[in-house]
Amino acid sequence: MPDRTGTAFLTVEGLHAWYGESHVLHGIDIDIREGEVVTLLGRNGAGKTTTLRSIMGVVSRRTGSVRFAGRELIALPPERIARLGIGYCPEERGIFASLTVDENLMLPPVIKPGGLSVGEIHALFPNLAERRRSYGKKLSGGEQQMLAIGRILRTGAKLLLLDEPTEGLAPVIVQQIGTVIRLLKQRGFTILLVEQNFHFASTVADRHFVVEEGRTVDVFSNADLTRNTQKLEAYLGV
Amino acid sequence: MPSFDIEVLLGQLLLGLINGSFYAILSLGLAVIFGLLNIINFTHGAQYMMGAFTAWMLLNYLGINYWAALVLAPAIVAVFGVAIERFLLRRIYELDHIYGFLLTYGIALVVESAYRAQYGVSGQPYRPPPALSGAIDLDYMLLPIYRLWVVGVSLVVCIATWLLIEKTRLGAYLRAATENPVLVRTFGINVPLMITLTYAFGVALAALAGVLAAPLYQVSSIMGSNLMVVVFAVVVIGGMGSIPGAILTGFGLGLVEGLTKVFYPPAASTVIFVAMILILTFRPSGLMGRSA
């Protein structure tokens, strides 16, 4: 179970979540080891985004258990969860239109040592360096995504929750984001990634959890992915 | 030919600038609160009155002078604001705007009635401190020092608030939380606390205006409700939630009012509302408002 590896970094057990009256998650179980890149795969509306939001504590109600680095998060408000070292990049990217690129980048406070410097973030995403004084609303979709990822790298968060970072982006930018994720893994970041595109997922991840109707129903290591392609295609309905 | 020589003109412009100083501080407080809380604080006039009364009470009951009251009274009224936010406003953020209006207006009625029950409606005098009494003789007119002081304080407070919001890290948190409070929380920023403190700050601005007003106008339980009708017009003209809109419109309309007194006195008390109608006809979200 959660401690079978002995080094579980994030352990989610029996997670249920609600938006107002509607019960959206019905039992999510995930375990991630430190330094792993893990994806959540599943159809639209399966509950992947809600799983990330529930880990972050931004749903109306949640039950079950979410343990991170030995701490139980289920009763904590989002600002306390973030301060334990979790960075969250939402699906809609959440770039602030009335703030400049620099202000967006510098907005999340540094919570722990060990984050990337602004120089390193600019090296990963040169576009952000060129557009420092532009307002958030002026950026292209790709630039917004770079900014949304870039700004949570500064804070020292060791676990990153990335919600569909490649959605709607040109192939060349998808490649760039893939490169960045592999680089972040090398630097010791642990990443939980929501993806629709499992071809992209297979180029960055160690393991894949499959989510269906608000439950985790299967898990594959990346090495087993090709052997399970048919099964996976059935899950994803492709 | 009506008698508008240069003295009358300058005198009325100065008077307009002073009224404008109060409009600016008060509408600034409303804009700050509206920006983050999305609530129009109809208790603002009562909190302005409380600021003036607190200064009066500090002097008459405790012998605490104007200079200390300038800091203490806004702080005391801000604590009252914290209580309102924590125990009342917090419960209605999810609800329709009309509940915010009913609640804050209801609180204003309760507060003003409580002061009226205790002190009646007649004004209590409050003397300006000796250092600010008297006037400078400019040959063509007498310039009361206290009025000059009010304009100066208002300008400094308005510019400092604008810089705080536009140019500092704290201000960036505030602007970001105005757009997307939930996401700002996921960065580890305590947005509920920030909302409480923002409300307290807006309330403190109202109370500061009250202290500034105490030596100029009579301190009375109804002083707030008289002024707020005009201030709400200022806020609507400037654009709801716009900080520079609130400041510039506050001073600008004070001057317009002053000029109207020189050229056509009967219209002086209505000119702001005529301006409001004209501006809203052509710019429904106000001069500097965010379009809805």
Count of DSSP-assigned helices of chain A: 9
Kindly report how far apart the N and C termini of chain B lie: 46 Å
Task: State the CATH architecture of chain B.
Answer: Orthogonal Bundle
The residue fraction in helices of chain B comes out at over 70%
Question: Largest beta sheet of chain A, briefly?
Answer: 6 strands, mixed
- The CATH architecture term of chain A is 3-Layer(aba) Sandwich
Tell me the CATH topology of chain B. Answer: ABC transporter involved in vitamin B12 uptake, BtuC
State the secondary-structure class of chain A.
alpha/beta
Radius of gyration of chain B: 19 Å
Please explain how this structure is put together.
The complex is a heterodimer of chains A (238) and B (292). By secondary structure, chain A is an alpha/beta fold. Chain A has a single domain, classed as Rossmann fold, CATH 3.40.50.300. Chain A has helices at 48-56, 78-83, 101-106, 118-124, 126-130, 141-150, 171-186, 198-204, 229-236, and strands at 8-19, 22-33, 37-41, 61-68, 71-72, 86-89, 159-163, 190-194, 207-212, 215-221. In chain A, the strands form two sheets. A six-stranded mixed sheet of chain A has the order 6-7-8-3-9-10, with helices on both faces. In chain A, strands 2-1-4-5 form a four-stranded antiparallel sheet, with helices on one face. Chain A is globular and about 45 Å long. In chain A, 45% of the residues are buried. Chain B has 292 residues and is mostly helical. Chain B has one domain (18-282): ABC transporter involved in vitamin B12 uptake, BtuC (Orthogonal Bundle), CATH 1.10.3470. Helices cover 71% and strands 2% of the residues of chain B. Chain B is built from eleven helices and two strands, in the order H-H-H-H-E-E-H-H-H-H-H-H-H. A two-stranded antiparallel sheet of chain B has the order 1-2. In chain B, helix 1 (6-37) crosses helix 9 (223-238), helix 2 packs across helix 8 and helix 2 crosses helix 9. Chain B starts with 5 loop residues before the first helix and ends in a 10-residue tail after the last helix. The mean pLDDT of chain B is 89.
